[in-house]
């Protein structure tokens, strides 16, 4: 009888068969979480991505629009050329670690988030500052020109509107220390440390909010209307033919009219805890 022997398998042919079988197999899809890890890691390694450059503020010639929505500027921003705009978008977390300094031009700052650790100087020209959220640690200086300041939230250290017939509107937020050199102001809410409107024909209309200390105007024909809110200290209109009308609200100190042909009206409400001094000249 003829015996058949089983030959040992050929290793080379076996490897070839395994390779062919592997090629015939369908590729297995990656798990979704693995894809997510790959894509996230790859994005994080990309250079100069928006996440890292969100508050990198490089001045350029002409009119420039800056946006600081996240991250840290790493220093101050100085741009004295053109009409410049600086935006802190709502919901942002950006921070400028230093001061802001703009030149003569129509400059705008719209702050709805974020932080400025230093001061703001908008320079000369017609400037606009709007704040609804966020913080400026130092003073906001608007400079010479017809400027506008609008505050509905957030906090700044102090405000100086400078020369020119400026406008001021406050419905919320806080000015920790002083508001100086305003001309036409409307206060519906919010809080201010003290107010000194100084020269020019000043107008201050207060229907809400709080002034911690004094409300003072300078030497000219000034008008103060108080229908609500609280003045913690005195109301003083200095010299000139001035007008003070109280129909509501609270004055913690005195009303000082000084010299000039002044007009004082107290009608319908309000509390004055101090004295009313009409000063010299023919007053009503």
Any descriptors?
single chain, 284 residues, mainly beta, Pectate Lyase C-like, 22-stranded parallel beta sheet, 2 helices, elongated, disordered N terminus
Fold blueprint:
Blueprint (H helix, E strand, L loop, with lengths): L10 H14 L7 H13 L19 E4 L9 E3 L4 E5 L6 E2 L3 E3 L5 E9 L3 E2 L6 E14 L6 E13 L6 E14 L3 E4 L3 E6 L6 E9 L3 E2 L6 E9 L3 E2 L6 E4 L3 E2 L3 E2 L6 E4 L4 E2 L3 E2 L7
Parallel strand pairs: 1-3, 2-5, 3-6, 4-6, 5-7, 6-8, 7-8, 8-9, 9-10, 10-11, 10-12, 11-13, 12-13, 12-14, 13-15, 14-16, 15-17, 15-18, 16-19, 17-20, 18-21, 19-22
How would you characterize the overall build of this protein?
- With about 280 residues, the protein is mainly β.
- It has one domain (about 70-280): Pectate Lyase C-like.
- It has helices spanning about 10-25, 30-45, and strands spanning about 65, 75-80, 85-90, 95, 100, 110-115, 120, 130-140, 150-160, 165-180, 185, 190-195, 205-210, 215, 225-230, 235, 245, 250, 255, 265, 270, 275.
- It has a 22-stranded parallel sheet that branches.
- The radius of gyration is 33 Å and the shape is elongated.
């Amino acid at each position: 009888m003829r015996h058949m022997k089983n030959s040992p398998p050929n290793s080379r042919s076996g490897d070839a068969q395994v390779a062919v079988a592997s090629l015939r197999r369908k590729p297995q899809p990656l798990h979704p979480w693995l894809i997510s890890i790959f894509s996230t890691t790859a994005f994080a390694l990309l250079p100069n991505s928006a996440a890292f450059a969100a508050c990198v503020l490089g001045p350029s010639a002409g009119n420039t629009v800056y946006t600081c929505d996240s991250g840290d500027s790493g220093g101050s921003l100085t741009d004295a050329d053109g009409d410049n705009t600086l935006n802190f978008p709502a919901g942002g977390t950006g921070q400028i670690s230093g001061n802001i300094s703009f030149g003569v031009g129509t400059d705008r700052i719209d702050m709805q988030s974020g932080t400025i650790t230093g001061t703001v100087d908008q320079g000369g020209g017609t400037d606009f500052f709007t704040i609804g959220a966020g913080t400026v640690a130092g003073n906001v200086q608007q400079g010479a020109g017809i400027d506008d300041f609008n505050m509905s939230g957030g906090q700044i250290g102090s405000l100086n509107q400078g020369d020119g017939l400026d406008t001021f509107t406050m419905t919320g937020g806080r000015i920790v220390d002083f508001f100086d050199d305003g001309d036409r102001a409307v206060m519906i809410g919010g809080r201010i440390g003290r107010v000194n409107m100084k020269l020019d024909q000043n107008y201050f209309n207060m229907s809400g909010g709080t002034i911690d200390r004094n409300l003072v105007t300078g030497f000219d024909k000034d008008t103060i209307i108080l229908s609500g809110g609280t003045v913690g200290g005195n109301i003083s209109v200095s010299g000139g033919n001035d007008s003070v009308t109280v129909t509501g609200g609270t004055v913690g100190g005195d009303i000082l009219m000084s010299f000039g042909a002044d007009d004082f009206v107290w009608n319908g409400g309000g509390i004055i805890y101090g004295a009313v001094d009409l000063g010299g000249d023919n007053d009503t």
